[in-house]
Design a protein that fits this description.
Elements (H helix, E strand, L loop, with lengths): L2 E12 L2 E12 L3 E5 L6 H8 L7 E6 L2 E2 L5 H8 L2 E4 L11 H12 L4 H14 L16 H12 L6 E5 L7 H18 L2 E5 L3 H7 L2 E6 L2 E6 L1 H5 L4 H11 L1
């Protein structure tokens, strides 16, 4: 399989604090890949580095064929058009309706007409399982599940190749979380997406991920399918999946 993300020997420091000490992994085209590990291990930091929102101090990171540490402004802007991001709490603009939130990226990055934007927004709302009437609601009027779906619709607005999800089921009740898991897999299959997901939710891990990397002690403790990772001879892996399962 062709890797869309290639991470080699990443070193990350915040002052004297070493966060990543030689992190290496790859994300293959078409897979749902998980970044796992205990709180504070640097999962979200690694995702933010892939998104060019954080810098690393050593190593190499290539996303969609581009060296993100060397990308010029125009190349970086082109990259951003090829991925979508669902942040942990949705990060919807509170003063905009659902439809207006989805339309933001289309107005920012394209010059298409308002009528076409409205058509795309309606399609994305339907795609994530929201109702047409939900388009007129503001974030404060949405349930947790609706908020996540609205943010997902915005992340899909530009028909991305890559989708980044930061704790997508966090804060959802069990029924809504499992519904969201199914939606993620359906969208991957329907849209030929490659997805990178940070998660602590073992049910999501079991039902959605094709492969994963587990970070511990600033390094990759294991990478592979769930069966391959669980089979790793590591007390930390045993404890992590047992605790997460509970």
């Amino acid at each position: 399989m062709r890797p869309l993300i290639n991470v080699q020997n990443i070193i990350t420091r915040f002052g004297a604090n070493l966060v990543h000490d030689g992190i290496s992994l790859r994300v293959n085209e078409g897979e749902i890949f998980g970044l796992l590990g205990p709180s504070g291990c640097g999962k979200s930091t690694l995702m933010r580095q892939m998104l060019m929102l954080e810098k690393f101090q050593g190593g190499f990171m290539e996303v969609l064929g581009c060296d993100v540490s060397r990308a010029a402004h125009q190349e970086a802007q082109s990259l951003r058009r090829q991925w979508g991001v669902l942040f942990q709490n949705g990060a919807l603009y509170s003063s905009l309706t659902v439809a207006e939130n989805i339309a933001v990226v289309l107005r920012e990055y394209t010059d298409i007409s308002d009528s076409l934007i409205n058509e795309i927004v309606a399609y994305k709302i339907n795609l994530v399982g929201l109702q047409p009437k939900d388009a007129l609601l503001y974030p404060a009027q949405l349930s947790g599940g609706m908020r996540k779906k609205s943010a997902l619709a915005r992340a899909l607005a530009m028909d991305p190749k890559l989708l980044f999800l930061d704790e997508p089921t966090s804060g959802l009740d069990p029924v809504s979380a499992r519904e969201f898991d199914r939606l993620i897999v359906e969208l991957r299959d329907m849209l030929n997406l490659t997805i990178v997901m940070v998660s602590h939710d073992l049910r999501s891990i079991r039902s959605t991920l094709d492969r994963m990397a587990v970070i511990d002690q600033k390094k990759i403790a294991a990478e592979g399918t769930l069966a391959e990772v669980v089979a790793t001879n590591s007390p930390f892996i045993d404890t992590f999946f047992k605790v997460t399962d509970e």
